[in-house]
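Summary for the steering committee. The consortium agreed at its last meeting that each partner would contribute one worked example illustrating the joint modelling workflow. Our contribution is presented below. We chose a case with several input lines so that the handling of multiple components could be demonstrated. No manual editing was applied between input and output; the record is shown as generated.
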Amino acid sequence: MANETLLMGAVAYDPKVVTIWDGFLAWFAKNGLDFDFVLYSNYERQVEAHLAGHFHVAWNSPLAWLQAERAAKAAGREARAIAMRDTDCDLTSVIVVRADSPIQSVEDLAGKTVGVGAGDSPQATMIPLIHLAEAGLEPNEKFDVRRFDVLLGKHGDHIGGERDAARALMQGEVDAACMIDGNHLLFSKEGTLPSGATRIIAQTGTYDHCNFTVLDDAPTALIDRFTELLLSMRYEDPVVRPLLDLEGLKVWKPGRTSGYALLERALDRFGVLT
Amino acid sequence: MNTVELGALGLDRGGHLLVKRALTRVEPGEAVRVVGSAPELAVHLRAWCRSRGHPFAAEDGLIIRRGDVERYNGAESAGAPNAVVDDAPATWGLAARGATIEAGAPAFDFVLHAKDDVWADEAARLYAQGAASQWDPATAIPWGDATEIPDAIEDAVVQVMTYLVENETAALVVSSRFAAQVHPHYFEVMQLLALNAADEARHVEVFRRRALMKRERLGLSSVGGQASLKTLVDEPDFAMASFLLSVLGEGSFLALLWFLHTHAPDPVTKEIARLTAQDEARHVAFGVAHLGRHTTADPALRGRLAAAIHRRHDALAHTAGLNEEVFDALVLLAAGAWTPAAISQGWDAVQSLERDMDLGRRRRLERLGFEAEEAEALSALHTRNFM
Ligand SMILES: [Fe+2]
Ligand SMILES: [Fe+2]
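What follows is the complete predicted structure of the assembly.
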């Protein structure tokens, strides 16, 4: 790996990923940073490659962050989150039933079927399930879990699993469905969950989503420059605005790791459902 | 604190409009309290604020703060609604004149982006006049009025109509091509050219329908006629094309159409000639207006226009010019009968038509600033095909 090029790993959960990072590549080049990226089809491979030194910085899902952090620790090393999207801070997920359902609270889910997203989706599966487990409802014991696996390995980055669970709820195939708060708004607006047809019975605690992860052997100067440039991107800049729109953020924020506690407990309790 | 009341309206049914409106009324960083009874309001407001960059605080009621990230920061105004700029920027693109344009808009390749190349103060008035004068070919022409006409005269009408169809088609192709090249900032010009093209479409229709009124076939199309029109269709420069088509060609056609109106053997042909001549007068007026302005701004343009006439004349030197069948048909129409005396009269009428055409061309050339002598010489070089 040439020292002057900063190499990033990312998971190709959608073709737009190429547009986004090709665009950022050009912007970084214009600002004097030689940047390039490699794409993986799944986060497990990306975490493995990161530990093996195939690239410097990973654009990680929250679960991939925990996996990288744990793998690093096991190897006597350290992982760090350097930056994240403003839209990835303080998310919540919700558990939704049909408006006419007799289910009024989490306790009423006992003996019922709960639809979740992909097995490795933090927002649509792991965090809602830990919320229920900690309320005394152990998944697969107190209630049935019905998974809507879309693109396993991509940690729920693809919205398909959540949408399938929402559709199954409306078709009566499941008694409840789990999704990120913003997707409940989106599904209501687009009609997947007709307005007024569903009722939210629970909202999880807040959690954070993706971050840029580096390991302790990352080239400091390059990483510092990369971070500095990321944080300097302005939504007002017409060159980066379309890329920020595509990536779904207004501003990059310094990385923080205080928002992964819920997911850690889910990972400890369930492992990764593959 | 500013408060916005949503009542039972949720953000999934348009509530965000009220929230956005409330946020525009405070400064970035200032708070707005959202009040409402929709059951999902807190969940949806949290998600909406996150995606829009507005900080959200649910702890103390639903309080949100206006973020400082705005899509239209750095936006630019695409000119003023009622004034045109000298050179319209490519990134103004299709935006309405006077709109506020998000920075970073794509650049469009409108070839005609300079005011001097296209503008005429008369464009808006001519457009309004043209829009108000659109006529319906189905009802404006007395198609049912079937006057008995001798066969030979009908043949002459069919031949002239056949010739007119190909000339009108050339005018349609040229107008519509340049309509699509004008920067939309000069929308009056774009609209006028589009309307001109629509006029030509109607002209093609009525000439064609008249030709087929009593016959099953159209007349003859000559190499010389099409070669003359091809030089128009192939002309890539708006000023040159406009000069050759509108000032010289359509100008000559004006005289031709009034000639047909005078000598029409039947009311259908007569009315067609009158209505199309009215439209053509507008086409000519715009050509003279924008080229008059253009030659005033850039006097060297006159030399290029003169060169274009010479070039076209040389290119057509080896062709026959006007289809002889068309010329003979015009004589016969003006004659109205096969007697030598009538033909002699028809001949004189066509001679007089050609003199009228020449006078008209010279007058318009002088309006573009050509000296009388030069105007006379240039008019003489105009294509024998008339258009
Ligand atoms: Fe016409
Ligand atoms: Fe015309």
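Chain B has a mean pLDDT of 94. The interface with chain A takes residues 10-13, 39-40, 43-44, 46-48, 50-53, 67, 69-71, 73-74, 102-105 of chain B (CB under 8 Å).
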